[in-house]
Design a protein that fits this description.
Pfam family, one: Methyltransf_29
Keywords: Glycoprotein, Membrane, Methyltransferase, Signal-anchor, Transferase, Transmembrane, Transmembrane helix
Number of helices: 18
Family: Belongs to the methyltransferase superfamily.
Structural class: alpha/beta
Subcellular location: Endomembrane system; Membrane
GO biological process, one term: methylation
Oligomer: single chain
Length: 617
């Protein structure tokens, strides 16, 4: 698509303007930029200088438009307009998640459930096309309204699937003609979820679920989260609750949770470890998650033990009987006796049982695993710092780690001793935190007027308030220490962040989890385990240079970013000038509206701020 200015020039000079005409236009635009410069401030404050509030005026918008037109005219003179836009994928890819091709997995010999696992090695073919939204897709409602009401056309969930669901939260959900409504917190009276949360708190000896934080429970891994209502309640208590559920072609728990603005990622308990380091979570929760925990000689329970921090809790709610998928026979439901042998080997203690709910607590004594008792599970050798979808291990992890600290002993903020465990000097950590506070202030002041100018139908005055609720699901694709996530939390932005540590970079994921944030290890040469259109903002600092060093395709990475970003969503890329210019050219092919921002700090770093358009097939 060409800008209105280029179309007008085409009418004046003809379809192929002479070199003289193009040079005349370039000189005119340069003069315009010089004339406007005294009346406006720089586009982006230096992230290394003192942060001052940015005031965007009409002059700034004119200057920015002039600069864009200048760059576009320059591209035309160089013949860049010959690059074709990327085509659109077919309807079959509207909810497509790569690496989960069950048919290909079966043909490759995967069976016994492994055909439903992640196998990116079998998905090497790349279709260079843009995944389009369904015909009925609508932009999600802003937070917090979008937590309670979503458009039914945005998720692949039919009325029959809803009615046949056995989820404990089904009664909280109302399926209307074009919306799915959930009960909000103020309307909950006897909803099951709030009572259930109070029951768990009572069983671990707390007076109320509002005391979870004081008891050391800050992060919760919710396995098989249903429609996400339990996770939504935990978020209201200021806990970080991440949903992990298998890939499902339709009726997906992960897709539904993310559409509601709740943290979620695709993950299976089948044959591989989840992409988290040892000692990551304070609580792991499973309510009717359809996992047979006493199968495979307790291998799934060993994985839970790996993920739990010392003193952490495993909460299991299981029905009396459960129907097996492959046969018509039934299997007895979980009882304390059926898991007693496994939990003793894991040094867990059964805290309480009430009806169908059991709570075990992991030991805080690392020596328990090396005692002379018979039938103990061996301790793993080495560490699992860089494990990435490795086979489930039949050994105990984390016992030799310096991170073996009981959850009750952890403070809200990492002290100098804990930082040194992660190889960080407190001064470096403080400097990084200040950097991201400044960067966030500049990001927000940069995006605010752009969002409002691009959406005039949305409320706004001459000096509109920043759109805190128009961006909610955020992914930091190269999270480093989790500084952006911390800055967003401190600034009280209504967002959550999926922190991603790229494979091959310094593995800071244990630090991110110790800060109470959610995060995963991921190889950006492969697709991310999520559904299309699940994030509002993607941020990547230095990722393009990193993936280039890993011999990954920048074009395929940007296509993957387009897949997981919702229409009208935003991308902020920070990298070197040459890398950003290459990305800007590719962004034009993907139909993104892209703007290069000079940081004005004398460095070679540039920002590329892009917006994905709402494209329908």
């Amino acid at each position: 698509m060409r800008s209105p200015l280029v179309n007008k020039l085409s009418l004046i000079f003809g379809p192929r303007p002479s070199l003289k005409c193009i040079l005349l236009c370039l000189v005119s635009v340069c003069v315009l930029i010089v004339l406007l410069s005294p009346f406006s401030s720089t586009t982006f404050d230096s992230v290394t200088s003192y942060a001052k509030p940015d005031i965007y005026t009409n002059y700034r918008k004119l200057k920015e438009q002039a600069r864009n037109d200048y760059l576009e005219l320059k591209s035309i003179s160089l013949g860049a307009n010959l690059i074709k836009d990327v085509g659109l994928c077919g309807k079959e890819r509207e909810n497509y998640v790569p690496c989960y091709n069950v048919s290909a997995n079966l043909l490759a010999g995967h069976k016994d459930g492994e055909e439903f696992d992640r196998h990116c090695e079998l998905s090497q073919e790349h279709q260079n096309c843009l995944v389009c939204p369904p015909k009925e897709y609508k932009i999600p409602l802003t937070w917090p309204a979008g937590r309670d009401v979503i458009w039914s056309g945005n998720v692949k969930l039919t009325k029959d699937q809803f009615l046949s669901s056995g989820s404990m939260t089904k009664r909280l959900m109302l399926l209307e003609e074009n919306q799915i409504a959930f009960h909000s917190e103020d309307r909950m009276i006897v909803d099951g979820v709030k009572d259930y949360s109070h029951l768990i708190a009572d069983m671990i000896g707390l007076g109320s679920d509002t005391e979870f934080l004081q008891a050391g429970v800050r992060s919760v891994l919710d396995i098989g989260c249903g429609f996400g209502s339990f996770g939504a309640h935990l978020l209201s208590l200021r806990l970080m609750a991440l949903c992990v559920a298998p890939y499902e072609p339709s009726g997906s728990q992960v897709q539904l949770a993310l559409e509601r603005g709740l943290p979620a990622v695709i993950g299976n308990f089948i044959s591989k470890q989840l992409p988290f380091p040892s000692l990551s979570y304070d609580m792991v929760h499973c309510a009717q998650c359809k996992i047979i925990w006493d199968s495979k000689d307790g291998l799934f329970l060993i994985e839970i033990d790996r993920l739990l921090k010392p003193g952490g809790y495993f909460v299991l709610t299981s029905p009396t009987t459960q129907q097996q998928d492959s046969t018509t026979s039934t299997k007895k439901g979980i009882t304390s006796s059926s898991l007693e042998g496994f939990t003793k080997k894991l040094c867990w203690s059964l805290l309480a049982q009430q009806e169908e709910t059991f709570i075990w607590q992991k030991t805080t004594d690392s020596q328990c695993y090396t005692s002379s008792s018979q039938d103990k599970i061996p301790v793993c050798k080495g560490n699992d710092m860089q494990l990435y979808y490795q086979p489930l291990a039949r050994c105990i992890s984390g016992t030799m780690s310096h991170r073996w600290v009981p959850i009750h002993s952890k403070s809200d903020h990492l002290n100098s001793t804990e930082l040194e465990i992660h190889g960080l000097h407190p001064d470096d950590f403080f400097e990084d935190s200040n950097f991201w506070k400044l960067a966030l202030r500049n990001y927000w002041s940069l995006l605010s007027p752009l969002i409002f100018s691009d959406h005039p139908k949305r409320p706004g005055d001459d000096d509109p308030l920043p759109p805190y609720n128009m961006v909610h699901n955020v992914m930091d694709m190269n999270a480093h220490y989790g500084g952006l996530s911390a800055a967003l939390m401190e600034a009280r932005k209504a967002v959550w962040v999926m922190n991603v540590v790229p494979l091959g970079a310094r593995n800071t994921l244990p630090l991110i989890h110790d800060r109470g944030f959610s995060g995963v290890l991921h190889n950006w040469c492969e697709p991310f385990p999520t559904y299309p259109r699940t994030y509002d903002l993607l941020h990547a600092n230095g990722l393009l240079s990193h993936t280039a060093s890993q011999k990954c395709s920048m074009f395929e990475l940007l296509l993957e970013m387009d897949r997981i970003l919702r229409p009208e969503g935003w991308i902020i890329l920070s990298d070197t000038l040459g890398t950003i210019e290459k990305a800007r050219t590719l962004a034009a092919q993907i139909r993104w509206e892209a703007r290069v921002v000079d940081l004005q700090n004398g460095s070679d770093q540039r920002l590329l701020v892009c917006q994905k358009p709402f494209v329908r097939k």
